[in-house]
Amino acid sequence: MRINLKSLAIAFLMAPLTAFAETEPVDYVNPYIGSISHLLVPCFPTIQLPNSLMRIYPSRNDYTTEYIDGLPIVVTNHRERSAFRLSVTQGEELTPIITTTWDNEKVTPYDYQVQIVDNTIDVHLAVCHQSAIYELTFRDPAKPATVLFYTQNGKMQVDGRSASGSQRLSRNMNIYLSGEFDVEPEKVGLLYDGKISDKKITEEPRACAALRFPAGTKKVCFRYGVSLISQEQAQKNLRREQADVFDIAKVIKDGRNEWNETLSTILVKGGTEDQKAVLYTSYYRTFERPVCLSEDGRYFSAFDGKVHDDEGKPFYSDDWIWDTYRAAHPLRALIQPEKEEHIIESYLRMAEQMGTKWMPTFPEMTGDSRRMNSNHGVAMVADALWKGLDVDAERGFEYCRRGIEEKTLVPWSGAPAGRLDQFYKEHGYFPALGVGQKEDVPNVNGFEQRQPIAVTLGTAYDEWCLSRIAEYLGKKSDAAKYLKLSYNYRNVWNAETLFFHPKDEQGNFLPDFDYRFSGGIGARAAYGENNGWTYRWDVQHNLADLAKLMGGKEAMVRELDRTFAEPLGKSKWQFYGEFPDQTGNMGQFSMANEPSLHIPYIYNYTGAPWKTQKRIRQCLDAWFRNDVMGMPGDEDGGGMTSFVVFSSLGFYPVTPGFPAYNIGSPLFTDIRVKLPTGKELRIIAKGSSRENKYIQSATLNGKTWDKPWFSHDDIKNGATLVLEMGSQPNKVWGSTESATPPSAPVK
Question: Which of 276, 324, 390, 438 is deepest in the core (most CB within 10 A)?
Answer without folding.
Answer: 324
